Amino acid sequence: MAAQELRAIYRCRDRNQAAQPLHDCTVMCIDPGVPEIGRLARTITTWRDEFLAYFSTGRISNGPTEAVNLLIKKILTVGHGFRNFDNYRLRLLLHCGITWHHHTPTPLRGRLPRLAA
Fold it and tell me: In whole angstroms, what is the distance from residue 106 CA to residue 109 CA?
């Protein structure tokens, strides 16, 4: 229920309209008897200004940047350290979804072999 209330705040139009539901959500989460939800209330209270900044910055988030940073750290961990930076860079480009622009090789034969046709 707390997650749904928090998600509903993102549907508000501006910062002033979002401030009251955020306060209500925090009050609802303060003492529900579940320690995780109490921790959520403390986190929301601590990050209140940053949470509401989402509405005054044109709904821009740094989530995609944080996702790429996490992916970079995972690749470095899985690779057990790369000695060659070029190999590390290529691995990052591969995992981050870069589309490679390469030409298709010219076929050597003009037709398929007789047995394959």
Answer: 9
